[in-house]
Design brief:
It is a single chain. This protein is an alpha/beta fold. The chain has helices at residues 10-19, 33-41, 52-60, 78-89, 124-143, 162-167, 186-198, 216-227, 244-250, 259-265, 274-283, and strands spanning 2-6, 25-30, 45-48, 64-67, 95-101, 112-113, 147-152, 154-156, 173-175, 183-185, 204-207, 234-236, 255-256. A seven-stranded parallel β-sheet has the order 3-2-1-4-5-7-11, sandwiched between helices. A two-stranded parallel ribbon has the order 6-13. Strand 1 (2-6), helix 1 and strand 2 (25-30) form a beta-alpha-beta unit. The longest helix has 20 residues, at 124-143. The two termini are 31 Å apart. The relative contact order is 0.14.
């Protein structure tokens, strides 16, 4: 069984670590020469993103394909790289997954969103994800491919969590009454992708997130308690003073439902709230 990943980052690494011990062969694209050695050290076959023949060869052999690279002004970079290669190779992988974001829903003033909710992206980045989702689903219908979309909230895990920000003095507690966010532990994300790979569904769309949307201040306070630290003082929300990325983050309030993924994929998060997730990271030395 072979998996090809276009864009090897935090989420893709977690999936590779999960599948390689099960006998999967994993290949991934890279752009810089020095990245090839890093991939090989992780048991992943490097494929130069600028080499169409190498991409085609990897795709021709793949049972599954995952696209994680974010879209830019010209759309998803995976489309021009992969679609011609799929056509030339006459490849029909069992599963093609695209990682999107819950930002496609925009602001819902704290209400719940489901995969059937209307899309109302409020940022350029969210709008680009909406377009990329649409393009990949159209490719799936046009080429007879089993394309699945995954809408993700904030992703955390070892080396990338509130605990790290607290230790580094970068954590802030923002007082924003009524503001909550959904999250997902990177291992739960990888488990959701694996569950979907085992049950491919053409045109499937899934929210992968935890069970308890929670405010930033609550999560930071819990992380500080785990570390035996005093939490940073709460600061009132001031959108104008925030960096653009943080401003977009705090401008949208919604609760994301994961019911479809549970019902259709039999997936349940091992870390249903930030409490289990942060506690596990700390226990593992993270």
């Amino acid at each position: 069984m072979k998996l090809f990943i276009y864009g090897f980052g935090f989420s893709a690494r977690a999936l590779a670590r999960r599948l390689i011990p099960q006998g999967w062969e994993v290949a991934a694209s890279h752009r810089q020469p020095e990245d090839a050695d890093r991939l090989e050290a992780e048991g992943v076959t490097p494929v130069l993103a600028s080499d169409p023949q190498a991409i085609q060869t990897a795709i021709a052999q793949a049972r599954a394909i995952l696209i994680t690279a974010p879209p830019g002004p010209d759309g998803c970079p995976g489309l021009p790289a992969l679609v011609p290669a799929l056509a030339r190779a006459q490849a029909f992988p069992d599963w093609l997954g695209y990682l999107s974001t819950t930002g496609v829903y925009g602001d819902r003033r704290g209400g719940w969103v489901f995969e059937t909710s209307r899309l109302a992206a409020q940022s350029t980045e969210g709008a680009r994800r909406v377009a990329a989702e649409r393009d990949w689903l159209e490719v799936g219908r046009g080429m007879g491919l089993t394309v699945t979309i995954f809408r993700l909230p904030g992703i955390y895990g070892p080396g990338r969590s509130t605990l790290d920000r607290l230790r580094e003095g970068r954590a802030t507690r923002v007082a924003a009454p009524g503001q909550v966010f959904s999250r997902i532990h990177v291992e739960d994300l990888a488990a959701g992708l694996e569950a979907s790979m085992a049950r491919p569904r053409p045109g499937g769309i899934y929210n992968l997130c935890d069970d308890e949307p929670a405010p930033n201040s609550q999560v930071v306070a819990y992380g500080a308690a785990l570390l035996g630290m005093e939490p940073p003082p709460e600061e009132p929300l001031d959108l104008a003073s925030l960096r653009p990325q943080a401003r977009r983050f705090y401008a949208e309030v919604k609760r994301v439902s994961n019911a479809r993924a549970k019902g259709e994929l039999g997936w349940y998060p091992a870390y249903p709230t930030y409490r289990e997730g942060l506690s596990a990271i700390l226990a593992a030395g993270g």
